Amino acid sequence: MSFRKKVVIEPIPKSMTTSTPHILMCPPDFYGIEYEINPWMSRHRQADQPLAMEQWNALRRLLIDIGAEISLLEPVQGLPDLVFTANAALIFQNRAVLSHFRHPQRQREQPRNETWLSAAGFTVEPAPEGTCFEGAGDALFCGDTLFAGYRIRSDATGHQKIGELLDCRVIPLELVDPFFYHIDTCFCPLAAGKALYFPPAFDEYGQRVLAELVDELIEVSAEEARRFACNAVVVGNAVVTNTGCAELHAQLKSQGFHPHETPLDEFVKAGGSAKCLTLRLDGEEAAAWKYQEPARRIQP
Ligand code: ARG
User: Fold this and answer.
1) Which of 22, 100, 182, 249 is catalytic?
2) Is residue 6 part of a domain?
3) Which of 78, 43, 47, 72 is nearest to 57 (CA)?
4) CB neighbour list of residue 66: distance below 8 Å, 6 or more residues apart
5) What distance in Å separates the CA atoms of residue 260 and residue 232, rounded to the nearest whole number?
6) pLDDT grade, residue 293 (50/70/90)?
7) Which residues line ligand 1 (CB under 6 A)?
8) Is the pLDDT of residue 12 over 60?
9) Element (H, E) at 124
10) How many CB atoms lie within 10 A of CB 6?
């Protein structure tokens, strides 16, 4: 029996930006700091639940205002980190490579992610066998290349296999600072050939590779990196971050982007911010494949 929704493939001219930006979020009804799996988290520094809800709603409203359509994953009691939908999977065309989390506490999210993504019409593929992989949190397209963070959460061997599976170039980058444990905390593609990054989160080799492969890199300061400046949501020319990233916003403005800020401190307590709270279902702005493939729409 199939419970997949009907997917309509509509060919569109390559030159046009594709469909409405489509983002998956999960309301923070059961969000909290229930365990400690990164250095931001302390059970002694609990999230303020109503405030978290307010901040999440403000992010959602802002994303809608800048043109995104939001789909929701149902929150589940006992899965406090399910709000971080970036970690559900890596999206590539109509395929979703499902995460297999490093920590058992988050492995319990996997069936929920799988059910939602397959019901939405994606072809869901498991993470490469025997490897940990934390989805878009650790794998971001910039142009044709998938930049993938490893060591702290995801495994380098898995990244290579994902490259074979999706037939794309993968550049595994070692993450060396436990505060920047997912690549989306220290690197953010803005467009093909253009990205934000926080260099000290990478080893010297990684920094060199990034400088070689990405034409324009905007460096984020240590202070703003700790405000999760790199954990930005890009929708068209709009770039959404946590508050406290004024320097980056000024740089973005001078380059023709439209930066927006919204307070997300309650989520920083768990080691997450704007980007972590979203999963781009139609492909990130910077992903070249998005402009090469026919638009894919999911029918309700
Ligand atoms: N507490 C969560 C964890 O440690 C936060 C995840 C943040 N997600 C992200 N894509 N960086 O797994």
Assistant:
1) 182
2) no
3) 72
4) 235, 236, 238, 240, 258, 260
5) 10
6) low
7) 37-38, 41, 81, 84, 86-87, 106, 137, 182, 184-185, 270-272, 276
8) no
9) strand 123-125
10) 9
Closest ligand 1 atom to residue 270 Cα is 1
**Token pair 């993450």: residue:** 175
Nearest to 98 by CA among 70, 130, 123: 123
For this structure, is 276 an active site residue? yes
Q: 182 catalytic, yes or no?
A: yes
Tally of domains in the chain = 1
- Per DSSP, the chain holds a count of helices (H) and strands (E) of 9, 17
Cβ–Cβ < 8 Å for 18, 294: no
Residue range(s) defining the domain that contains residue 80: 22-291
Q: Are 294 and 10 in contact (CB under 8 A)?
A: yes
pLDDT digits (tens, 9 = 90+) for 168-204: 999 999 999 999 999 999 999 999 999 999 999 999 9
**For 91-139, how does the pLDDT look when each residue is reduced to its tens digit (9 = 90+)?**
999 999 999 999 999 999 999 999 999 999 999 999 999 999 999 999 9
Residue 41's pLDDT band, with cuts at 50, 70 and 90, is: very high
User: Does residue 46 lie in a domain region?
Assistant: yes
Model's pTM, two decimal places? Answer: 0.92
Task: Using the mean position of ligand 1's atoms as its centre, give its distance from the Cα of residue 89 in Å.
Answer: 13
> For residues 63 and 65, what is the distance between their CA atoms, to the nearest angstrom?
5
Q: What are 65's two structure tokens?
A: 């205002």
The answer to the question of residue 3 being in a domain is: no
2 located within any domain: no
In this predicted model, what pLDDT tens digit does every residue of 239-292 receive, in sequence order? 999 999 999 999 999 999 999 999 999 999 999 999 999 999 999 999 999 998
CATH number where 228 lies: 3.75.10.10
Which amino acid is present at 63? L
If we measure between CA atoms, which residue out of 118, 147, 109 comes closest to residue 26?
Answer: 109
C-alpha of residue 272 to centroid of ligand 1, in Å: 5
